[in-house]
Design brief:
Layout (H helix, E strand, L loop, with lengths): L36 E3 L2 E3 L3 E3 L22 E2 L16 E4 L2 E4 L8 H7 L1 H6 L4 E5 L4 H11 L5 E7 L16 H14 L5 E5 L6 H10 L4 E4 L3 E3 L2 E2 L4 E2 L8 E4 L4 H14 L5 E4 L5 H10 L3 E4 L2 H4 L3 H15 L15
Parallel strand pairs: 3-16, 4-7, 7-8, 8-9, 9-10, 10-15, 15-16
Antiparallel strand pairs: 1-2, 5-6, 6-14, 11-14, 12-13
Length: 338
Amino acid sequence: MSPATAPGTPAAPPTARPRRVRRAWRAVRAGDVDLSVPVGSLVLPNPVMTASGTAGHGDELQAYFPLSELGAVVVKSLSVEPWAGNPPPRVHQTPSGMLNSVGLQGPGLEVWLSRDLPRLVAAGARVVVSIWGQRIEDFARAAALMQGVSGVTALEINVSCPNLDDRRRMFAHSSIATAEVVAAVGESCPGLPRWAKLSPTVADLAEVAGAALDAGADAVTLVNTVLAMSIDIDVRRPVLGSGAGGGGLSGPAIHPVAVRAVFDVRAAHPKASIIGVGGVMTGADAVELLMAGADAVQVGTATFRDPRAPVRILSELEHWCARHGVRRVRELRGAAHG
């Protein structure tokens, strides 16, 4: 008999095993899954949208799938005046995503309203207009142009851009500045829901989200790209044309960042509407963000590899729900919180 099993010798403790939650479910047909989700004052037919900056200003993706199949189409951020953006190179592939410093290039809202919006409406898209500015009054002017415009579902307020009145610090890096922008947009365009798109590079994202919600935001979009940089070691200079300004990292590399951001904000603001975005490449990624606390998700960088990614991800999400007996996708919201 070995010493470990000799009489009077304490038995070795059993090896700890992770606890598994067992759930009984019955698979349902994919077509029977209710994909509709509430986002603030809206109810969207499904929780998958494009992410601003990755699907152009108009109906570019209509060539690959009907835009009407998505919950919404969020267009690339627009300012009142045309904006040239940053010098090239503007994008750089990383091992798990991409860097971009496009610099919010756009034709200006008046051109967009006459040229691009009619095509989106004709395609049956639910259009969310992303607006940006360098001062609070820029956001107010942009919002004023949207007042009474037919065919626009909501405004996404991109506060992850430089504030000229605050040493070029992002609006989203300040709870006060974020709240001021959201309030100004509401005063200029009270008829449209407001979604505040926030940056993950802050000390307390839940605090900034709370400020946006208190100022009247219907929802918060979490998160924008992560500030990052890549250096060409041969020429000893930053790779992107923005130089010392660096760029924004997107793609699978930031997915865990987005999950954590959504989880924390959901815990801090249980009744808030949250749109999760960051590295959604598959239906499983979408499920993860929904379980973290998102009501809906946006698909961005994946469209550069596969322009049909948004509808593929929607189909994968629907089939995941069917296999796991989830009859209404909104049941997944915050499931990871217990």
